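Review this:
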Amino acid sequence: MQILSYAFSIIGLICMILASILKNAGMKTILALVCFANAIVATGYLLAGSGINGAATLYLGAAQTFINYFFERKNKPLPAWLLVCYAVSIIAVNLWVGGLTWLGVLVIIASLTFIMCIIQKSGAKYRFWTIVNMVLWCTYDVLSKSYNGLLTHIPLLVFTVAGMLLYDRKNTQKNEENP
């Protein structure tokens, strides 16, 4: 099962990288890839036999991204009450699955930053929150001994930092040159 969990993590990583690098992809495509990636990485956590909090939260993140997909498809903004429901459901699921532990609190914080990722309209802000999210998930992976998750989270962190350096620095330089 460990090998299968690593395979799932690699598939999730490929989906997340595609979501990050597809040049002409719209938000619908990005959200679909992120939804699938969350579900597949969550399954990898379960197959590894560790990281139950991570699995539950990633499945919830997949559901949240799926919901966002339909709002994006209809070109409607996310209502504030839905974001509150996302946050409450993250806290409730993690308290139910893992209780109030340091690891559970870490997953809750990581998941709340994921909400910040998926509500951004600016690529620079999305990348910033993704970096925060990946650092938290890498920390969770190490502390929960869910090393298969690191196979997804470390490369995604590296790709996101590279994207920030390439795109955001270039955009900042353009804005400074053309005030």
Remarks:
- The first helix runs from residue 2 to 21.
- Residues 2-177 form one domain.
